[in-house]
Structures are given as structure tokens and as C-alpha cells.
User: Fold these one by one.
Assistant:
Number 1:
Amino acid sequence: MLEFDGLRKSYGTNLVLDDVSFAVAPGQMYGFCGANGAGKTTTMRIALGLARADAGQVRWAGRTVDLEVRRRIGYMPEERGLYPKMPAAEQLEYFARLHGMNAAAAKKSAAELLDGMGLGERSKDALEKLSLGNQQRVQLAAALVSNPDVLILDEPFSGLDPTGVDALAGNLAERRSRGVPVLFSSHQLDLVERLCDAVGILAGGKMVASGTVDQLREREADRQLRVVIPGCDGGWARELDFAHVASDRDGEVLLQLDDPSRDQDVLSAAMAAGSVAQFGWRQPTLVEIFREAVAA
Ligand SMILES: Nc1ncnc2c1ncn2[C@@H]1O[C@H](COP(=O)(O)OP(=O)(O)OP(=O)(O)O)[C@@H](O)[C@H]1O
Ligand SMILES: [Mg+2]
């Protein structure tokens, strides 16, 4: 387990983290979400010892993260940080050596990763000669090259094209399947929804939601029933005294029920009104859960 336990951090009078606790299990992909300035980067930097918490601690396998543990963490910093003039492969080998790999293993790992990221041909090019997205791919490779036991990646998907997203997602999934806990921050909630086993949403210095995407969806109080009757006005739904019509457009009606068990009564009314093409509870998207959690 990678455990964040009661983290508290202020910058001057700005209380950024106010008792933040969550855990990432081995083999879990954890999406770390929150508005700009919510404190995601600060949390990750504390784990890496790059910022000091006022209270609380970060543990890996029960042990407070120290220098030795940090060597086993693959970290991709928000500010990035590679050498512009050094060839891609060379810097990856350098990072791998820093994390304790021998020269041969470092060379092999670097070459494999660059190939996997679609940069095999560019491995001898200086970083500054690569496009922004390709520099990002090298930056990711730098976090992964030493085959770390833990991954902490600050917005790893930003700037990648769809092929890059797929390559990275595949690579992370493979590491997860080997038991590596993967924590990454992202504003791309569709990606988080698709890739992550668990999600945490940081707002106002606190974890306002944390759990599997399904758990977060179940917690959503105002689930909506969606009924589609092509070509039919939603007047039938407005007549129901136990339901509230949230939207009515082009034959599609979204309803909130005071008592969810009355969904079959809605279906009966809908069938009396016309030919029902679709009927079911609508799952809120992560974007909706996020808006709700951040607004609360
Ligand atoms: N070194 C620092 N000195 C002063 N304030 C800081 C420092 N680092 C971060 N902060 C403040 O801490 C808060 C959280 O910043 P942080 O970078 O952790 O947010 P974030 O969730 O990563 O945001 P983003 O999505 O924009 O990357 C912000 O209000 C920021 O201004
Ligand atoms: Mg950040």
C-alpha cells in the first residue's frame, strides 16, 4: 500500500492540504483529480520529499517514505526536468543508473521504452529537437525506465496524442498487473474514468470523494431515469406526481424520482404515451460527479 495519512500543509496563510488521507493498493490505478490549485502536485511532492508536510506522513509498505524508498518510486514531476541538449536514450540511461540499474540493464530498458513510446528512431536526437508531445513521451519514459515499485505521475497524459495516450495506458496497465500501485493526476476525466480502479477528488484542501468510480456513482444522490420515446413530447412525464422532470428534449426525458422503486410506474406511463425505445437509470459521468463534489 502507498498510504497518505493525515497530510496537512500551508503556504503562509494558505491552507492547501487539510488532513488529506487516501491509499493506493498494489495493482491499483488511482486517478487523482481536483481543480487547478487544489493541491495535487503538493501532495505528490510531499511523497517525494520535495515539499515538507506540516503534519501527517506518507508510507509505502508500512514504512515511512525515506531516501531508500524514494529510489524505488518512479516520479514524473509537473515542471518536467530533462536536459534539453542531451539525447533521449542517453538521459534515460542516466536516470536508470541513478536509480541503481547497471549499465547494460539501463541501456536495454531505455531502448525498449523508447520503442514502446514510438520513439525508437529518435533515440539519438537531443530532447530539444523533439516536438512537445514527444518530449513528454521521453519524460514519461524517464519515470518508468528503472522499473520502479511505485509510480507517482503528475499529469502524465497532458499533451499526448491518442496514440501516445494508448501507449502510456498500455504500459501503465502492464505495470499495474505486476502489482505496482500507480497514482496519477489528471484533468482528463474521461481518461480517468476509463483507466482507473479508484479515483480521489481533492477540493478545499480535503478529499471530498474517494473510491472506485462505481462507488462514487452509487453515492450520487440524484440519479436520473432516462426514457426515450422518439417523436413524443414529455408531457406524459410532467403529469407524474412522484417524479420531477429534469430535462425534456427531442423525445428524451430525464426524471428524478422521490422514490426510486417507482421506476416501473414510470415505465407503464411511458408505454401508455408511446413506443418506448430506451429506458434505464442513467449513470452520472465522472465530470458530473466532479462538478458536484467540487461545488459542495
Ligand atoms: N512553493 C509554493 N509556495 C507557495 N504556494 C504554493 C507553492 N506551491 C504550491 N503553492 C500553492 O498551493 C496550492 C496548491 O497548488 P498545487 O500545485 O499543489 O495544485 P494542483 O492541484 O497541482 O493544481 P494544478 O491542477 O493547476 O496543477 C496553490 O494555491 C498554490 O498556489
Ligand atoms: Mg499540479
Number 2:
Amino acid sequence: MTSQPTPWRATVLTLFPDMFPGPLGVSLAGKALAGGLWTLEARDIRASATDKHRSVDDTPAGGGPGMVLRADVLAVAIDAAGIAPERPRLLMSPRGRPLTQAQVTALAAGPGPLIVCGRFEGIDQRVIEARALEEVSIGDYVLSGGEIAAMALIDACVRLLPGVMGKQASGTEESFSEGLLEYPQYTRPQEFEGRPIPEILISGDHAKVAAWRLAQSEALTAARRPDLWTRKAGQKPLGRGTKNTTDG
Ligand SMILES: C[S@@+](CC[C@H](N)C(=O)[O-])C[C@H]1O[C@@H](n2cnc3c(N)ncnc32)[C@H](O)[C@@H]1O
């Protein structure tokens, strides 16, 4: 008898477990969840509160607005989740390292993370250190809680799991996979409001199509994301400089 591989797992600690699976329950991620290609466990942090009011937060030491998630309550919640040592322990946080496709790819290749969702003004620093939580940000803006950020991270990972996307190539040619933004896409009709599909894409010449797409990707990246372009420039000679069809 052959044993089934353990599916990729996401364990989420949240004050709002009812938010899950939410958007992760539909489309690609939802089908994969129903099909057992990954598993999701949303655990209620409040279940680890010990006082009769089941409180999870308190006022910030030193004063200031808002409330802070208590270290003792969250530590109990993390310990109760029984996370194997090889699983990453993440805390969604605007102070964290910005999430990248490279990190998503690495997370998708592993056993799947524990993800702590913050609320209020933040989380007591001592539990972040004591439970070695790695802070991860999904962008330079502030959400009201970590749940939507956790869903974004999980969705990005799940679509890379084997068997989730119809055609694996769709994960290897898209934005960020080669340090570039994706080239423009077109489909029928052949002409839309007087705009034809670029001639080269219907030429049937695969080499020319590939060269056109690369040039478009490079031009888009240089125009829109100089940070990515500079990084790419450090890796290989640049200078195709073909103008893309969407930016001047
Ligand atoms: C209102 S925010 C707290 C913001 C905090 N006072 C600060 O200035 O850094 C509440 C929670 O939302 C989540 N969150 C907000 N913005 C985020 C982002 N850009 N990336 C990841 N998580 C975020 C975090 O879990 C955070 O603890």
C-alpha cells in the first residue's frame, strides 16, 4: 500500500475564525480545499483567554491609543495549536518583511505555515520574540486585521501547490517569477473597439512571440517597477528597451 503525502496545511490563529475559509472556499483554492490538496484550520485566539470575560487585549504599556493583544493569551493559543517545529510561524504585520513571490514559492514548497492574525494596535512584543514569529507584510498600508493579509498569503501559496492550477506553466511565466512583470495578454475578438491584437501574436512564429513577450515584460518592469528592474539588472545584461503597448 502506498501512503498519501500529507497535504499542505495552513493553521490560522485569529479572533474571527468565521472569516475563514471566506474567499479561500471558492474557485481554484476552494476546489483544491474540497479536493484535499490542502487543509485549513482557523483557531480562535479567544478560546485561550483565561479570565471570566475572556479578554484577549489590554491597554498599551506607556499609554497611547488602542489596545494590545496580550502575550500570555496568544502564547497559550500558539502552544495549543501544536505546530511541528519544521512549520514556519508567521505573524501578519505591516512592520514585517514585504511578502514576495520567492517567499511564497518557498512557503508553498514546505509543509505549510502557522499564521497569526493581529488586531487592535498590535501584539505584545514579548510573544513575538518568545515564539519566534516571523513578521510578514503584504504592503505598505494598514489593514484593520491580519485575516485578509493571511488570506492573500495562503491564496498565493495554494495556487502553486501541485495539481491546483490546470497548467503548471501558468505559474512559471507570470509576474515576478523571473523578476519581471508579466507581458500584456490578449484573446478574442481579434479587434476590440478598433484595437487589434498585436500582429505578432497571431503570426504563429513561437520564437518571435516569445521575444516580443520578453521585450514587453522588460519594458513594463523598467517603466512601472524600477526597484525590480534594478535588481534584475544586477543579474543579467539589460538593454532590449522595446517599448511596451500599455505605457507611453
Ligand atoms: C490596525 S493593524 C495594527 C497596525 C499597527 N498599529 C502599526 O502601526 O504597525 C492590526 C493588524 O492588522 C494586520 N495588518 C495590518 N496591515 C497589515 C499589512 N500591511 N500586512 C500584514 N498585516 C497587516 C496585522 O496583523 C496587525 O496586527
